[in-house]
What does this fold into?
Amino acid sequence: MPATIANPALSFLTAFGRMSPTQPFRTFIRTTGYKLRPPRPLPFAPAVRTAQDEILARGNVGLHQGASILHEERKGPTPTIVLGGFVPDAAEQVFLMRGFLLKNGSVYYFNYPCRGFSADLIYAQLGDLVDELTRKHGRPPVVFAVSFGVGVVLEWLKRARQSGRHIDLSGLVLVSPVACAEDLFTPGEAKPSTLLARAVRPYVDHDTRIQPAQIEKTRAIFTKMFEAGAQNKATLRTLMTVAELRRLKTSVLGTIESIDCTGAFERMRALRQMQPPSAYFSQALLPLCEAPTLILYAEKEDSVLTPGSPTRFALAAAHRAYFPESQCKVIANPGGAPVQHASLIFHCFNFLPAISAFYKRLRQPRLSRAA
It folds into this structure.
């Protein structure tokens, strides 16, 4: 079973933890790490487009169905590609971790389209980006994926194995994996038990486009989920400045509002077509990747994941079959509110020790890591 991370020195620094004079000091140190103001990621125009151009040339996929990529350039040995969950976008998903990630190298934010979604094009873009960054930086990147983003990564790696392609990465960080529809609700259940399952169930149950009224209902659910975490503004200001909090809320709610009917339907259709990891538990396809891998679950995943989540079962029980050099841990917040699914914003400082240790391990010679 996964080990539990419990760091008493950091646990009180979570968004819902107890107040401490140390918290405003840490916020000050983090925000003043920038010379003048926190930089905004800039659009990235990929130079390598081999795989995505091949997909586009077939004529049944449009540019609007592909991801947009933002980046922040830094000197450092290890570039990172971030893929978020359903919402928010990747840059907001790691809002409080960006400073840490940038200390290790450039960061590339892989944002899903709002008015469409082609899984084939997304996987092609991800492969092209990995190839480009490997050439540019002299070593392959780390792929950092959250929730639905983990499903995208697992499906991409599985397809590569099926086609006989080898993907070289420096590492993988997989947070609160959602890799199939069955992770969110039990097939055949009359009524989903979680808010997220209620939001996505109509898209999984129907092959036709969703009506605008359902889109508004889904937006309301995602907004409620975010605002439930952001409701204690006094405590959140111990993690970020007022300006950062305002910017974060504007970005997240803006993303929720900008996803239209087609974008929502096609994104959920991609989830519905993803196979549970147990479906490809075979010597022909495993391992998916031999790079060092960190799999992190929150202590309170049951607010999102179904108790019978096939992805969690597979990765908790047999993660080394999928990723031979892997660790699977549970992130906890002793003495405070439980860590929630993919809560990298509101429980940033609970996740950070495990992630920091992982990147430190990547800086060690490969022979030492394997020992």
